[in-house]
Every structure is written in structure tokens, then in C-alpha cells.
Design a protein that fits this description.
The complex is a heterotrimer. Chain A is of the alpha+beta class. Helices cover 19% and strands 33% of the residues of chain A. In chain A, the strands form 2 sheets. Chain A has a 6-stranded antiparallel β-sheet. In chain A, strands 4-6-7 form a 3-stranded antiparallel β-sheet. The interface between B and C is large, with 192 and 198 residues.
């Protein structure tokens, strides 16, 4: 099965993506990850203003038969959460890199430790 | 299934002591099966080291069905027959015959948890209707389809309060008259959760809003209030209590039961966040403590609810269908982070409760509950006429039971009544407690006569 | 192949389902009661008001839309769905059994005698010195057992230090949850390649933090942990206790006893091993047995026999209570009656036929079964098929499918436990259902089930938009 892996994004080994093309870093989960989880029925996200460390668990995605923690690819402060996915968790399945994004982080650290698209492709 | 095997099986006796009467194998079957798996004997299928094999006997003799039935009947016959006027959290009401006949249908009784919903729609719908009954009775949005009993439900609500409360705080407040058993179970349920159970004072078992307010602070996670109280009184000022608890940001859990809830203020209307209790007052009776834990709460706690939930959905043809839902809360998926360890619960008792409530209907439920108020008030008035008895101990509105002060020694009185064939509670050095419902009201006059005689 | 079609009740206008009671009638009653102040009573009560004949028909139809062990085989792995003898219901329904739990002990000597006899017989069956019948389910038994272990370590001054409970990754989810509820950190023990406990991994996992190891034997693959004595030594040498999850005890009845293997604590699932009905999810009962050393920590009260009388006794260092009364008494009576009916020979025959049935059924199925030798259950792989879809299609053949997708060590697992109560004929039918599904094309399997009261149910929308009462349904309508 072919998964979409946009080349402009960076990826964590735990299958989150990070988009650092603007001042804040937008975070979501990869196409591969949403497929593994199956139909997502519930999204739990942190409150805005919360600090998160790199690789720290910051939320939960639930499908019917599985629960998956999500980890921040970069340390910083949560500055925005996607309210749409809380009401419509299916967005994470339908558009994981677009309207299914999860949070925006004001970064304190670097993103250098993350994989690029080809490295991530290799990994999965 | 061919007729041949049916006949060959019919020739076997079922009371033999050489094997299980419930394993339907003929010797020829065993031979054929062993050949199919290339084994000489059943023994060789056991991959158990000889050092841990058991070659002894348990010393339990097999018996025919008739013998076992006779033995058990004989042993149970050693229980004294007494008319029970006992309550204090467990109550008998007449259970209509229809409940037994329907709940004992083996499609219900012998089914497993509904992990394959397409083939277990019937039980799922019955549990959905049970949940709906509790939603109507409590006014809260969510009810699960069962905890073991009121005590364990209280334990579960305590750990729930810790998970959902936004501020820290470890105090769980329970009334000083809470039954020891419930308190002891609660202590165990919170033992892994760094919560501390404390008593708050009541007056004759009744919560006074001001006295409760005095013990509240920001560290209170949960306050448990019973209505009716363990002492048989309808709790007043619940709205005020609810307001105090809301100000303190403490979770408010009300303890009650489906009969009381049919008549008394809805928990939602007085600000309760959760309701627990013994739901088997409908459907089962006291049954030496076999029970049904009622658990209902506000919708905002939905993701933190313990136990099973049935939801309505649709099947592929677009027809309404039911399924266990939100299972990611549960132990088989979330393991050590589950909301509870509960798996097997009291589903079949919930079915009984739902059927009993259906038989009564709304009018029947309200009438039964009104009777639960009238009967103890009337009996207390009669006892109060007897010299040496003052009943009830506290003025107020009673439900099913009341306490009476007695001049004679309580232990003597209770055992003398017992000798007359009546069981009542000895509550403390000066008081007894008497529970009267539709189940024993026909014996109430005899009880009065017996008390009169014993006191005289 | 067996023909089967489950009932569908489709009343005019209900579009393919038996209407809810509330759809048949909703009556609002004004709760007027002059004898109580208004602020103590509710205003209205809105519930169905139906006649007895209507209610009888409603629940009869619901029962026809439900599948029980009396309907057909129910080979759910680790669930031991065996025939439930009917006479045990009659015994439990006796009015003398239904006493109030606050009756004084001298007045319920019969009840206490049965209770005591069951404590004794379970002790002998498990090889344990003392038994409590109080835990109302298997998971409650686990919780109780772990609390006993905790109390024991605390008594030895090691309560703080021993903060971990080790659980094999293939264990039942309740093991993890019960240990966590008792306040323990759960350490997951990876399995060996051959599906058993990896002794080396165990050695490195145990230590002075270990409070207990929880183990099922035979394990969820049906395999006996051959190294059980060594496992016990490793755990005991580290000062930990060994806990036996009794879910799979049916395999060992009369042939091996947890107590003899070195287990310190065990629970019994009487609704599995001892044939009490599962009741669509309960009630069950989860008595626990312990060694002499742990007897003082058992829940209160224990029933003891003294001079021909039965007494309620609080153990010296009791953990307190885990149920508001004496446990699920009505279930315990049935357990007692079943054990008495079978006796030694019947119990021993039970494990023989249970293991024979699993081995025979496995031999008749055209699916890979990667681990053996198994006992009362086996785990087949649905191979390229999704095990959940495989199971749904089995429903169309009039049988209940196995437990699916677990344990995870077998891909697309079909965990199958036929129990002793199925005849060869039924096992052949069951095998026929497995093999028929295995040979069918993907489309047919994916379209299943077709013969059940409901077709494939949408679990996703049930979870995304929960409707948990008829109130929620009508609010949304």
C-alpha cells in the first residue's frame, strides 16, 4: 500500500509529522499512522498554553479497538489546537496532513533530530 | 445432527460416576477422535511435567442430580425460617413471576458478553433499555450496564472523581452512618489511588448542610450522600447540599435505588454528578447479598466511566442496531490505564431489573415507592403506642425503614423477637431498626404483637 | 452444513428492528404525593406503560435475537463457554437461599455450611490452603489477590519497596488493570519465541521491587508453562509471590493444581470452569485461594467450622472487604452443586474431554495453528484474512466464532476453546464452519453476516456519536 509522505514535512519515528515552514510548528500524524489506527473516533488534545517536552506524550487518539498516545516531535508551548478534529475525528483519517492537523507548537528546540520524507519512507 | 448419534447417546445413563455427565462423548467417539489426532490415549495430550502432576483425590463423591438437589435442600433447610424486617441498604420487594420466566430463557442466561453484537442484539437491547431506565430515574445522561454492587460502585465513583477533577485533592467524604461493608470496600478501591476516606458527621444519619459545609475545603474530591439514608430517612435540603459541593468543586455522588428514585427528587435536579446504589431492589431482592451496582453520571465524564456501555448504532442495511461501545476505556484494550478492571459484571441481574421495572410501569413504580413511605410511617406509629418503645427515633419522612428506641436491652429484645420468628436490626445500645415493604407488610401486625409481648 | 437464520422482528413502521419498549409506549406520570413536601419528590416519571402480555412478547423476541450456549457452540478462547446444567438454577432459586445478608450467623447455618463446603472443595481442587468466596468476578479475584500480596509485603516491611507486578504481554487485560488498581507499577514481560515465558527475561525482570508475577497456565495459547517450577523459584527467590489467573483451569482439573506448582495465590472463574451461566456478561464469581502463609490476609469474613457450627471470622490481618456482602452467593450455590454433581471422576473427565475436544477440533481445521502442544484451547491464524471478518462470516453458519485478534503473537488470531461439552458431531459442524469460511472468496466474507438479527454493525459511528439511552436517540431524531 502506498502512503502519502509530503516531502516538505519532517517525521518522528513515532509517526507524527511536523511542519516548520512558519513560525509555529504544526503537528499531526502521518498517513501511515492513521491507516494503522483505523477509523479514529476520539481525539484528546492538551490545552493551549501547556508546555511540552520533546518526545513527550501530549494527547490520545482512539479508534474502536486501539488507543494511541501522540508525542510532540519538538519541545515548546502549545499555542493552538485543532478544535475541528475534536468534533470530527474522521478528519485525521481523511486529511491527515491538512484539516486533520492536531496542534501548533511554539518551538523551543530544533527539529534536526526528525526524519525527512525519504528517511521516513524507508522506516515504514 | 444425525439421528444415529442421538440414539446411541440416549442409551447411556447420565448418573454414572465414571465421567462428566455433561461431556457428550460415547466411547466410540473418543476412539475416532483419538485416531484423528494420532494419539493412543487422552492422557498423552497433557504436556505437564510429572513433578507437578496431581495423582491424588479431592475426596468429592459424584452424585446424581436428584441427590445433589436433595442434599442442598437439606442443608439450606438448616437456615431458620424467620420473617425478615431487615433493610439497611438491601431490600426485598415482590418480584413478579414474569421476571423469572423471561430472564431464565436460556438465550439470555447462557450467553456471553456481547462481543459479537450481530448475534446478540436481544441482550444488547435489553441492556440499552436498562441504561435508559436509569437515565430517566436519575436525570443524568449516562448509566453503565452494571457494577457488582453498591459498595464497589462507590469505590469506582471515588476513583472516577480523582480522574475527572481538575484540581488536586485527596479527600473522599462519606457519612458517619455508612455501612461498615461499604466503607471497607471503598477503602480497598481507593488504596491504589492516593485518596483518603473520611467520615463527616450526620444527625441520626441525616446530613445537615451546615455541618457538611464545615468540613469542606479545596481538597475534597468526592462527597457521598445517601437518599434515603442508612437510617431510613428521606434526606432533606439536598439542593443546598448540592450548592455547597458545587462551590467547593467537589464531586457530588448520591446513593439511592430505582424504587426510591421513582418518587424522590431526581439527582440531576439537586446537582448530583453521579449516582450509585443497589439496583437489584428491583428484580432480585436481598439474595444473601447478590446484587447489582447502579452507576450513573453526567455526560462530561463519559470517557472516564468504568464498565460496559451499550450504544445504539446502525447495521449495514441501515437498521437500528446496538453494540458495546467506547470500549477503549476498558481493560481488554487499555490494560493498566483502563478506567476499571471490571470485565464480568452483573448483566443478567440488570436484565431482571429492567423487566421488573417494565412490569411495574411508571404508575406501578410510583405506587410502590409511595408505599415505601406509608408503611414504615404507619408501623412506627403503632409501635410508638407500646410502652417502652419510642418510634421513630427522629421525626422526618421515612422510606422503607425507621429506627425505634427501646427500653429493654436491645440484644435481648432482638434475640427474643428472633425466637418468635422475626428478624430486626440491632443498631446500637438503645435502638433497633425495622424495615417494612410490600414483601413483609402482611406480617407487620404479628411483629407488633410480638414486640408488645416481648417488651411486656 | 447446518442451516441457520436468527430471528428478525420487524414491526410495521420500525424498519427492521424490534422497537424499544419506549417506542411502544411512553407514559408520563405526574408524581403527586400529598404526604411528602413538593421539594422532596420528583415532578414526573416518563416510562413505558405496557401490559404483561406485551412485555412477555417483547423480551421473548429479544431472547430470540440472542445466541446462548444452548443455541449452539460458543468456542470463545479463554472464556470456557460450556453447558450450564439447569438443575443448578433450581437449587439457587430455593427460597431458603434468599436470606438477607444481615441475618445473624446462628440463623443461617445452612447457608454458611454450603459456603464452607465450597471454600473447602475449591481449596482441594486448586491445591490451596484457604479460599475466600467474596470476589464477585474473576477481575475482582485478581484485585483481591493482589491486595493480599500487598498486605503480605507490607506486613513484612517491604510494602514500599515492592512496587511492581510483572505481567506477561499475552496475559488477560484484567491482570494489568487489577494490578494498577491496587497501586502497582505494571512491568510487561515479553514472551518467548515458543509462546511461553522467557526465563531469561523473567530473571532480569524480577528483583527486590517485585511484588508478584501474574500467570495463566496453560497460557492463552493453550500451552502449559513447562518451566513452572523454575519460574516459581525465580519469583520466590526474589521475594515475590506467584499469582495464578484461573481463566484456563478447565484444562487441568484433577490433573495438576496451581498450589502444587508453586502458586501462592489463585483465582477461580466459576462461570468458566464450574459451568455457572455467564448471563450475558455476569454475574460470575471469582473466589481466590491462597497458601497457609497468606491466610491471615484474606478478606473478612471467612466461614469457619467449629464444633459442628459455622462461624463468621475476621482473619487476623484481613485486607477488609471487596464486596458489600458475601459475594455473588446465587452463583456460588450453583458452583457448589456442579462440583458435587461431578465429583472427582467428573472433574477429571472434564479436563480430559476439554483437551481431547480442542485437539480434535484443531485437527479438522484447515488453518495454521503455529503453537503447540496445546491443551483446552488453540490459536489458529486466519492467515491473509482479517480475523474479525472471518469471525463475522462464521456467524452465518449458526455457530459463535472464536475470540479474535488475540493473543497478538499469532497474526489474525482465532483463539478457540470448544470445552468438554461439545459432541464430536458438533465439533465436526464447527470445523465445517471454519473450513467453509476459509475457502470462501473475500467478497462473501466481507459481506457477512447475513443470517443474524442484525447485519454488520457500524461501531465507528456508535463511538463517534454515542447514543446511550432512548432519551439520546429521541433527542437526535
Amino acid at each position: 500500500m502506498e502512503f502519502e509522505i509530503p516531502s516538505e514535512l519532517r517525521y518522528a519515528e513515532s509517526h507524527e509529522w511536523a511542519d516548520d515552514r512558519s513560525e509555529t510548528v504544526r503537528v499531526g500524524i502521518s498517513d501511515f499512522a492513521q491507516d494503522e489506527l483505523g477509523d479514529i473516533v476520539f481525539v484528546d488534545l492538551p490545552s493551549e498554553g501547556e508546555g511540552v517536552g520533546e518526545g513527550e506524550e501530549f494527547g490520545v487518539l482512539e479508534s474502536i479497538k486501539a488507543v494511541s498516545d501522540i508525542y510532540t516531535p519538538v519541545a515548546g508551548t502549545i499555542v493552538a489546537t485543532n478544535e475541528d478534529v475534536i468534533d470530527n475525528p474522521e478528519l485525521v483519517n481523511e486529511d491527515p496532513y491538512g484539516s486533520g492537523w492536531l496542534v501548533e507548537v511554539e518551538p523551543e528546540g530544533e527539529l534536526d533530530h526528525l526524519l525527512d520524507a525519504s528517511e521516513y519512507q524507508e522506516m515504514i | 445432527m444425525s439421528h444415529h448419534t442421538q440414539l446411541s447417546r440416549a442409551t447411556r445413563t447420565t448418573g454414572e460416576s465414571t465421567g462428566s455427565p455433561f461431556a457428550p462423548h460415547s466411547e466410540a467417539d473418543v476412539e475416532t477422535m483419538l485416531q484423528a489426532i494420532d494419539a493412543e490415549s487422552v492422557e498423552e495430550l497433557f504436556d505437564i511435567p510429572s513433578s507437578v502432576r496431581f495423582d491424588g483425590e479431592f475426596g468429592i463423591d459424584a452424585a446424581s442430580e436428584q441427590e445433589v438437589v436433595r442434599q442442598v435442600a437439606e442443608v439450606l433447610g438448616r437456615n431458620d425460617s424467620a420473617t425478615e424486617f431487615l433493610g439497611r441498604g438491601r431490600y426485598d420487594h415482590y418480584v413478579p413471576s414474569l421476571v423469572d420466566h423471561l430472564a431464565d430463557r436460556s438465550e439470555f442466561l447462557t450467553s456471553y458478553t456481547q462481543y459479537q453484537p450481530e448475534i446478540t442484539q436481544g441482550f444488547l437491547q435489553a441492556l440499552f433499555e436498562y441504561q435508559s431506565l436509569l437515565v430517566e430515574l436519575t436525570g443524568l445522561e449516562v448509566a453503565n450496564c452494571s457494577m457488582y454492587d453498591a459498595a464497589t460502585a462507590l469505590g469506582e465513583v471515588a476513583t472516577l472523581s480523582q480522574r475527572v477533577r481538575s484540581v488536586t485533592g485527596d479527600r473522599v467524604l462519606v457519612p458517619d452512618v455508612l455501612r461498615d461493608e461499604r466503607r471497607a470496600v471503598l477503602e480497598n478501591y481507593v488504596s491504589g489511588a492516593s485518596l483518603a476516606v473520611e467520615e463527616y458527621p450526620t444527625t441520626d444519619g441525616v446530613v445537615e448542610p451546615d455541618a457538611l459545609e464545615d468540613v469542606l475545603d479545596g481538597d475534597v474530591a468526592l462527597v457521598y450522600v445517601e437518599n434515603p439514608t442508612t437510617t431510613g430517612l428521606i434526606q432533606e435540603h439536598l439542593e443546598e447540599i448540592g450548592e455547597h459541593l458545587a462551590e467547593a468543586d467537589a464531586m457530588f455522588c448520591l446513593g439511592s435505588d430505582p424504587v426510591a428514585l421513582s418518587l424522590l427528587r431526581t439527582p440531576a435536579s439537586i446537582g448530583a454528578d453521579a449516582v450509585i446504589g443497589d439496583a437489584s431492589v428491583l428484580g432480585l431482592g436481598t439474595a444473601y447479598g447478590t446484587s447489582l451496582g447502579l452507576f450513573a453520571c453526567k455526560e462530561e465524564y463519559l470517557r472516564q466511566v468504568p464498565g460496559r456501555l451499550v450504544g445504539a448504532s446502525q447495521d449495514e442495511s441501515g437498521h437500528r442496531a446496538y453494540t458495546l461501545t467506547l470500549q477503549t476505556r476498558e481493560q481488554h484494550i487499555r490494560r493498566e490505564r483502563a478506567t476499571s478492571n471490571i470485565c464480568t459484571n452483573q448483566a443478567w441481574v440488570a436484565l431482571r431489573t429492567a423487566i421488573h421495572a417494565a412490569v411495574l410501569g411508571p404508575d406501578g413504580l410510583v405506587d410502590l415507592a409511595k408505599n415505601c413511605h406509608r408503611l414504615p410511617e404507619a408501623l412506627a406509629r403503632e409501635l410508638d403506642e407500646i410502652e417502652g418503645i419510642a418510634a421513630p427515633v427522629r421525626d422526618g419522612y421515612h422510606f422503607r425503614e425507621f429506627r425505634a428506641s427501646v427500653e429493654p436491652d436491645v440484644a435481648d429484645l432482638v434475640s427474643e423477637l428472633y425466637a418468635e420468628g422475626f428478624a430486626v436490626h440491632a443498631t446500637d445500645a438503645d435502638t433497633i431498626q425495622i424495615c417494612v415493604t410490600d414483601a413483609n407488610e402482611n406480617q407487620a401486625e404479628e411483629l407488633v404483637a410480638a414486640i408488645e409481648e416481648v417488651v411486656a | 452444513m447446518q442451516r441457520h437464520e436468527q430471528a428478525v422482528w420487524d414491526e410495521t413502521g420500525s424498519e427492521g428492528y424490534e422497537p424499544l419498549l419506549s417506542e411502544k409506549d411512553r407514559t408520563t406520570v405526574d408524581v403527586d404525593y400529598e404526604e411528602l413536601p413538593d421539594d422532596l419528590t420528583r415532578e414526573t416519571l416518563e416510562l413505558p406503560a405496557l401490559s404483561e402480555p406485551e412485555i412477555a412478547r417483547h423480551y421473548t423476541r429479544l431472547s430470540q435475537m440472542n445466541y446462548g450456549i444452548d443455541s449452539g457452540p460458543y468456542p470463545l478462547g479463554s472464556c470456557t463457554m460450556k453447558y450450564n446444567p439447569k438443575f443448578t438454577e433450581d437449587v439457587a432459586a430455593r427460597t431458603e437461599a434468599a436470606v438477607h445478608p444481615d441475618r445473624p450467623e446462628e440463623s443461617v447455618q445452612g447457608t454458611l455450611q454450603l459456603y464452607h463446603e465450597l471454600q473447602e472443595s475449591l481449596g482441594r481442587i486448586g491445591g490451596m490452603d484457604a479460599v475466600t468466596l467474596q470476589p464477585p468476578a474473576g477481575a475482582a479475584g485478581e484485585f483481591t489477590g493482589i491486595l493480599v500480596a500487598k498486605a503480605y509485603h507490607e506486613r513484612n516491611g517491604e510494602g514500599e519497596r515492592r512496587s511492581e507486578v510483572i505481567v506477561p504481554s499475552s496475559a488477560h487485560g484484567t491482570n494489568f488493570a487489577s494490578a494498577a488498581m491496587a497501586g502497582y507499577d505494571v512491568v510487561e514481560l515479553p514472551g518467548d519465541d515458543d509462546g511461553r515465558i522467557d526465563l531469561e527475561a523473567l530473571r532480569s525482570a524480577v528483583g527486590e521491587e517485585t511484588a508478584a508475577l501474574m500467570l495463566t497456565n496453560p497460557n492463552t495459547l493453550g500451552l502449559f508453562e513447562r518451566d513452572i517450577e523454575e519460574i516459581a523459584t525465580v519469583v520466590h527467590d526474589a521475594g515475590g509471590l506467584l499469582y495464578y489467573d484461573g481463566a484456563n483451569l478447565n484444562a487441568l482439573l484433577g490433573r495438576a493444581r496451581p498450589g502444587d506448582m508453586g502458586f501462592d495465590i489463585m483465582h477461580y472463574n466459576v462461570h468458566k470452569t464450574f459451568a455457572t451461566p455467564h448471563g450475558g456478561g455476569g454475574p460470575g464469581a471469582g473466589p481466590i485461594g491462597v497458601t497457609e502463609e497468606l491466610r491471615p490476609f484474606l478478606p473478612s469474613p471467612q466461614v469457619e467450622a467449629r464444633d459442628g457450627r459455622y462461624e463468621l471470622v475476621e482473619p487476623e490481618h484481613s485486607i477488609g472487604k471487596v464486596h458489600g456482602a458475601m459475594g455473588n452467593w446465587l452463583v456460588l450455590i450453583k458452583t457448589h452443586a456442579y462440583i458435587r454433581r461431578l465429583g472427582d471422576s467428573g472433574l477429571r473427565d472434564t479436563s480430559a474431554k476439554a483437551v481431547l475436544n480442542a485437539n480434535y477440533l484443531a485437527s479438522q481445521i484447515d488453518l495454521e495453528i503455529p503453537f503447540g502442544p496445546f491443551h483446552h484451547e488453540f490459536v489458529a491464524s486466519a492467515g491473509e484474512r482479517d480475523a474479525a471478518d472471518f469471525a463475522k462470516r462464521m456467524l452465518d453458519y449458526g455457530v459463535h466464532p472464536p475470540t479474535t485478534k488475540w493473543p497478538e503473537i499469532v497474526s489474525e488470531a482465532l483463539m478457540t476453546e470448544p470445552t468438554e461439552a461439545e459432541s464430536k458431531t458438533t465439533l465436526d459442524q464447527l470445523a465445517g464452519a471454519f473450513n467453509a469460511v476459509a475457502s470462501e472468496d473475500e467478497e462473501t466474507v466481507a459481506a457477512a453476516p447475513e443470517k443474524t438479527s442484525a447485519r454488520y454493525i457500524d461501531q465507528t459511528s456508535a463511538a463517534r456519536n454515542p447514543h446511550l439511552s432512548w432519551h439520546a436517540l429521541s433527542d437526535d431524531a
